[in-house]
Amino acid sequence: MENLPNCPKCGSEYTYEDGSMLVCPVCAHEWTLESETENNEDVKVVKDANGKILNDGDTVSVIKDLKVKGSSSVIKIGTKVKNIRLVDGDHDIDCKIEGFGAMKLKSEFVKKI
Question: In CATH, which of 3.40.605.10, 1.10.645.10, 2.30.30.40, 3.40.50.720 is domain 59-112?
């Protein structure tokens, strides 16, 4: 009997082969050996309007006037946003803007400083 890897979802050691698939009887997770050997880090790369890679803690600048939904105020072009945090979703930057508070921005409307 060959040594099969533990389940990547629940860690169970009772995995078995079913054709070309590996199956976990505990959580019913199915995967292939090829997916196990690939790099499991699906890191999303977030880039600014100029194509520079953004990281948590960066300082960015807004490149166009942005209307704030549900308010009559506008975030002006050139507004600095310090200490950004990258998140998943359509609006991929989570930040606090002075005078506005907590906000989510799209990376396509900022440039890295």
Answer: 2.30.30.40
